[in-house]
Structure formats: C-alpha cells, structure tokens
Design a protein that fits this description.
alpha/beta; Pyrimidine Nucleoside Phosphorylase, Chain A, domain 2; Aldehyde Oxidoreductase, domain 3; four-stranded mixed beta sheet; 16 helices; 16% strand; binds uracil
Length: 429
C-alpha cells in the first residue's frame, strides 16, 4: 500500500517546531497502529512532542485519531444518564470503590472501565480482585445489563477500545515520554470518549505521589483534558486534588477494599469520605442530577446496598473475609513530636515493593500486601509509637520497603507549623 506521508517528514516537522496538519496526524496514528510506522519512528515523534508540545488543534486531532483506531461504545440505549470518573493515579486512591455505588444510588449509571496498577500507583481491578470470586472481564452485553439493573460496573476495558493508545502507551513507558502533557491528555481522553460516557469528572492528582508534581503542570493537564472532553460533547469537569500524602490510611489491594467498605458503612477516614462525596456531587451535577444529599447515602446504607449488588453481579462474595498478609512489621516513630510530612511517593513505593504492585504487566500481585498508616500529617506522636504497619506474604521484602520509607516521614518538635492543605485544591470546568 502506498503511504500518503513519509514518517521522517512528520517527525522532522515536529522536531522543527511546526504544527502537524490534521492529515499528517490521522495518517501517523493509523500507520503506527497498522505497523507501517516503526516503533523507533514513533518513539522519535513522541520525544519531539514531549520537547516541543502541541497546539489545542493538534491534541484534539491526535485524540480523534486514537479514538478512530478502535471501537466506540454507546450507552444511549440505557434508561439512565451516565457519568464516569477518571483519576490520573495516586497512592491509596481507592475512591472508585465507594464512589461508583454511591453515584448509582441517585439514578446515574457509572460505567467505570479501569486498569491495573503499574509502578507505585495501584490499579482498581487489582483491588477488586482481592474480593473472593470477583471477575474483571465482562462482555459488552453483561456490562449493559449490569448498568441497567445495578447502576454501576467496574470492569476491564476491552482490547477494542483505542488500540493505538495501548501500543503507544507501552512505547512511551520505555522511551521516557510518559510525561508529555499532550500525550497523557490524549491517552486518557481517547479512552473516555470512546467509552461513550455522557459526563466525566477528572481527578487530576498533584504532588509527590502523582505524575504531575507541580500545580502548574496539573492545571495545564486538567485544562487540556477538559477542553478535549467538551469539544467531543462530553460534559467534563476536573478537580485538582492533593497527592503529597496518601489518601486515607491504607495503600494495598485488600487493605484498600477494607477501607472502602468502612466508607460505605458510614465511617472511614475523613479525607477519603470528603473526596468521595465531592466527586459524587460533581458527577451527579454533570449528569443533570445535582442538588442531592450525597453524604446521607453513605450513612443510611443505600450506597452499601449498591456495592453488594455490584460485587455480586460480577461473581464476588461481599461477605467473604478479605485476604490478610501472612507477615507484618511495624515502623516506629524515632522521636517525640508532630508529623509534618508523610510522603505519598515513599509509601507508594513501599507498598509496591511489599507485593501490592507489579514491576512488569504480567507479574501477579499479593492481595494482602501493602502499608497501613496509623498517623497522618498533623498527628502528635511519642518516640516508639507505631507510625505504620507493613504487610506482606514474603518477609524478605521488608528491608527494601523500609528503604523506600527512609526519609518519607518528617517529625518536627511539638508545636511546629504543619502546612496541611485541603484535599481538593482547585476546580477546572
Ligand atoms: N493514564 C493513561 O491512561 N495514559 C497516560 O498517558 C497516563 C495515565
């Protein structure tokens, strides 16, 4: 087949700071997906994009080309409006688990196509797989039925959705080009737009445990994604939320399910409850069902009822005891004082090294592994008091986890100032 462009010309255009035309973008994304543009050529182009950026038109065209590489789902036959949430990934971010059933309580369907964890951030599917019997894979028909009958589905994205992104994401992972804002935005939004949700709320994390370390970068990413969603006819809102310290008191699969169930039972850590409620309010508003008393559905059992139905519909047993790691080890406070810093990245890496995460896509995860926090920034502690407990089935992992935590906690003399900010930093619409 004769090709309409030459990959080297497209790469040189971007290298020399020119805008790529819509035709060039459509061609290069399609040709790469078919294998006509080589991995090393796309890797050079991805680096040129990382270094030289893209205009709003280029990003929108790139996203459209990635959507066109696969199938599009259609929820218009459902009797309920749809709303989805996407988080850019963080440590202890179990919010999808209480959020999906909570939103479904109010008659809005939540089609949550999720992923597995890679690196120090956990994946929602890995967490739910610690529930006995729960299955991540669903046919499109089963997904539709569950959305209609239960109102919430958390499942694996099928391989037909944005296949260009699957290939490109794997390439970016090994070529130092993950951090390009145009590529992150188009990667996330191509999947969400192809999924066909009517409304989308983005939780853009900022801080040590997130992809975006600064507020400026997180704001730019959020703005870019909101514009892409809006241009595609999806009502899209972004919240910028703090990821300098872990969310809640747990990082690790079964540990996070346990904490999510506490939230669904009306308890749980205040930051997890606050973010769950705020995201639910935003999703309901974006789906045209705003103005509801969301918090009440956590305390009166309605969200728990949907959770149980959602887990059961996918073969899970909501009453089965959650797996517990075979070994634990405490981390103790070295001095009296006040905890002024508890670093999300250090805790995320420790949980990963304990077995909660994977280094390669095909690695298994340990359901019970992870980190349980006993304190959060602002807490006053005494020397020798427990700061956290490490959980694993393989105790030889404790030493490497402790290394990751070296310097992750700052304890200052009692009375020192603690700069603890709100969980929700900004809203971009
Ligand atoms: N999540 C995605 O789906 N894609 C990215 O590029 C980064 C995070």
């Amino acid at each position: 087949m004769s090709e309409s462009f030459d990959a080297v010309d497209v790469i040189s255009h971007k290298r020399d700071h020119h805008e790529l035309s819509d035709d060039e973008i459509r061609w290069v994304v399609d040709a790469y997906t078919r294998g006509a543009v080589a991995e090393e050529q796309m890797s050079a182009l991805a680096m040129a994009i990382l270094l030289n950026g893209m205009t709003r038109r280029e990003i929108s065209s790139w996203t459209a080309a990635m959507i066109a590489s696969g199938e599009r789902m259609d929820f218009s036959g459902l009797s309920r409006p749809t709303a989805d949430k996407h988080s850019t990934g963080g440590v202890g971010d179990k919010i999808t688990l209480p959020l999906a059933p909570l939103v479904a309580v109010f008659g809005v369907a939540v089609p949550q196509l999720s992923g597995r964890g890679l690196g120090h951030t956990g994946g929602t599917l890995d967490k739910l797989e610690s529930v006995t019997g729960w299955q991540a894979s669903l046919s499109n028909e089963a997904m539709m039925r569950q959305l209609e009958e239960v109102g919430a589905v958390v499942c694996a994205a099928g391989s037909g959705l944005a296949p260009a992104d699957k290939k490109l994401y794997a390439l970016r992972d090994v070529t130092g080009t993950v951090e390009a804002i145009p590529l992150i935005a188009s990667s996330i939004m191509s999947k969400k737009i192809a999924e066909g949700t009517g409304a989308l709320v983005l939780d853009v994390k900022v801080g040590s445990g997130a992809f975006m370390k600064t507020r400026e970068d997180a704001t730019e990413l959020a703005r870019t994604m909101v514009d892409l969603g809006t241009d595609a006819g999806v009502t899209t809102v972004a919240l910028l939320t703090d990821m300098s310290t872990p969310l809640g008191l747990t990082a690790g699969n079964a540990l996070e399910v346990r904490e999510s169930v506490e939230v669904l039972a009306g308890g749980g850590p205040q930051d997890v409850v606050e973010l769950t409620v705020r995201l639910a309010e935003e999703m309901l508003e974006a789906a045209g069902r705003g103005g509801q008393d969301v918090r009440a559905a956590l305390t009166d059992g309605r969200a728990m009822d949907v959770w149980r139905a959602m887990v059961s519909a996918q073969g899970g047993d909501p009453d089965a005891p959650l797996p517990v790691a075979r070994h634990t080890q405490d981390v103790l406070a070295p001095a009296d004082g006040v905890v002024t810093r508890l670093d999300a990245y250090g805790v995320g890496v420790a949980a990963w090294r304990l077995g909660a995460g994977r280094a390669r896509k095909e690695d298994p995860v340990q359901a019970g592994a992870g980190v349980e926090l006993h304190v959060k920034p602002g807490a006053t502690v005494r020397a020798g008091e427990r700061l956290m407990t490490l959980h694993t089935d393989t105790p030889e992992r404790f030493a490497r986890a402790e290394e990751a935590l070296d310097g992750a906690v700052t304890i200052a003399p009692a009375g020192s100032r603690t700069d603890i900010g709100p969980v929700v930093i900004d809203r971009i619409a």
